[in-house]
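Thread: Modeling a multi-component assembly for a lab meeting

Hi all, long-time lurker, first post. My supervisor asked me to bring a structural picture of a complex we are working on to next week's group meeting, and I have zero experience with this. I have the sequence lines for every component (861 residues in total). Could someone generate the structure of the whole assembly? Inputs are pasted exactly as I received them:
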Amino acid sequence: MKTTLKKGLSSGVVFGIVFIFLLLIGFINVGSTMIGDLLGNTENVTSGHLPVNNLLLMLALMGLLNGISARRGLGEDKWWKALLGGLLAGLISGILAWLAIWLTGTLSMQGTALQDYLPSMDPEELNFLRFYSTPIAAANTYLIYFAAFSVAGAALSWLFSIRGWFTKCWQSCKSGVVNWKGTRNISGVFENRWVMLVVFLVVAVILYFLPILWGSYWNYIMGTVAIYIILGLGLNIVVGYSGQLVLGYVAFFATGAYTFALLTAPTPHGIGLNLWLAVGASMVVSTLTGLLLGLPILNLRGDYLAIVTLGFGEITRILIRSDLLTALTNGPKGVTDVGQPNWFGEVFSDVNYMHLLLLLVLIALFIAKRLKDSRTGRAWVAIREDQTVAQATGINTYRYKILALLLGAAFAGLAGALFASRNQFAGPEDFTLMVSINVLCIVIVGGMGSLPGIVLGAFVLKGLPELLRELEDYRLLVFGALLVVMMIVRPEGLWPAARVKFKKPSEKQMKDLATEVEK
Amino acid sequence: MVIYLGWRVYQTAFGEGTYGPDTWMRFLITGLVVGGMYALIAIGYTLVYGILFMINFAHGEVMMLGTFAGYFVLEVFSAIPAPTAADPNMTFLNAQPVIALILTFIAGAGVSALIGYLLEKIAYRPLRGAPRLVPLISAIGASIFLQNAAQLLFGPQRRQYQNPDLLWRGTGWMIPVGGKEVMLTYTGLFSFVLSILLMVGLVILVKKTKLGKSMRAVAENKQAAALMGIDVDSVISKTFIISGFLAGSAGVMWGIHNGLFNHYVGFLPGIKAFTAAVLGGIGNIPGAMMGGMLLGLFESLGPALLGLDFQLKDVIAFTILILVLIFRPSGLLGEALSEEKV
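Re: Modeling a multi-component assembly
Sure thing. I ran the full set together rather than chain by chain. Output:
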């Protein structure tokens, strides 16, 4: 009884606070608009108001979740206990919501300019949140909805727990997700050379035709994703393979982009180098930057390294835009008219460009894969797992760490050159700390050290936000929360790197072994 | 390189046509005021590092939320009317400036302390005992989350602190230096004195009280402290509360002294205060205080001494960080740390 109430109470408080937070950042509005878009229920023709049933649906969903979470981990229970817990959770969160709605509603109806302090609380939106009625009535609706649907959620979760379906289903789903890569009979097929060849050909054909079919908008989005895949692969060598947390990865990206831009743009230097040579030059310069940075600092330990590289990234950006280097880099204005790739004088179309990007992504994937399986890759993993032991086994840790950073920097240089040539522009504000953070998120969310994880991570973190335009404002907020949640729930990432595991012998094998030894 | 820098410093300091002593005095004052704030934030890094061996990357955002809290409290006070016979338009802020300021500081520091407590509870506690990169990444995530939450909640525009008339920005005493007058602003002096007072308070707390004793014990050895009957989790929570409190005070000072702020206000001071903590020797409280003051001075005097643009003052801070970490990773006052703590 006590635990039921306690769970209900804490779930109610958490949901109430989350609701108020979402309300204040304007997400309740955006979320119900999205539900409306999904259901095709966008505008009420007669009144010109936004339809409030989207909002009600959203409240109902939140209430259900609240009820389910209030009963999480309680298992089989008396039915009235379950409902009581749900009711308590719903009431608590409902009362918090009631207070928030009533307070904001009353204040805004009195003419207080809430939006001066809380920008998402402007009268229009608040009117919608009040269902275009009085604050008291609206607040009561919120309370009733939360309480009712929380009880419903608790009832639902109780029903499932009684039959054991829910827990069983959940467990099988969970173990399925954990083990689905481990199913040997499927992955065994992929080890066959001919099967791999066929798969590769099919993928190549699809990749060839996709950019032609899906138009320039998609080419733009997927181009961004491809550039970020290359960046992610590069950072993965540094962070995922060798375990060095580098937060200033953007410095190499910026160096690559600026080298390319300055070598090909008509201003400020007018060198007009051949583009393919310029790409090579960007990679070389980025690598040299990596060497410059890496030689003194790579012996620092993990968290110091993170901060120093972060500082280095910021220094790079400040220097690029400073008056000191304006003559070299064109300062805050950035470099315009950066050269585009061409094939014997013919400038690439977006389709050709996408093909080029895909080709480079495949090459980068191939290189990263071969590196991972090589002696060098194993040395990196050893350093990542335990540097002292790695050193004891005869690995020159310093040299391997530098090598990882140099390779990572070269990848970033390539990505930078592609980025500059695609945008035909390189400006200091493209290279903020957020780029480093984005790439780090890709590597970590995908799974450190895992190549398919990087690709998946780039699609999820760079591709999805482009598609969900309404959520653009919330992207970084979600990134931050995602990093914390991933570290707590699943530090190995969405698609963890497969590791060679030695199977524990089964009990029968152990017995056989024992009898053999006895003989 | 060193010779060149020395020559450069000599030339700017004593050469013809450079800054007069009044300008140097102004730089010195700026450096000390900013240094005091850095020191307060740096203590937060050092306290947490001393106990958990992790960099609380979100510490700057904790300070930022304190700045916002102080701002809102001052806005409310300046809206409450307190008419007197002499001035019917008097507000509570100007009628009772001392009480208003005390309440503002309590609110700012309190909000920051609360955020620090929640941060530890939600983002760091579940990760205790995990490999070292894991809590660091979680801290980076928390930092991004807090920064963007503040942007979404309060908007991206810059806001201005509503100071009481007593502490109006740009007013102060005139001190004659070398024939010219240099202004010692009231806000600057106020911030500096308050930061010194807070630091003294912290030292007393750590050295004299039971809580301070248990904090030192936990920093020394968690297991042994637990065996002596110290509740390690609660000590860690309290450490986060104290460091949040100091950061929040620094945040309100920042607002009162500089006036303009937005949701990025915590980022650079956070990084620089970390630099200060490393400069003094991380884990070492007097080191953090000294490092903060030194960094403030380097930052305000450095560009002038080296004859560089003031745009580059952030570069100086970061360069110092890199140089300290390369040549003396244990900091100026730090002892050499054992491998386990490193």
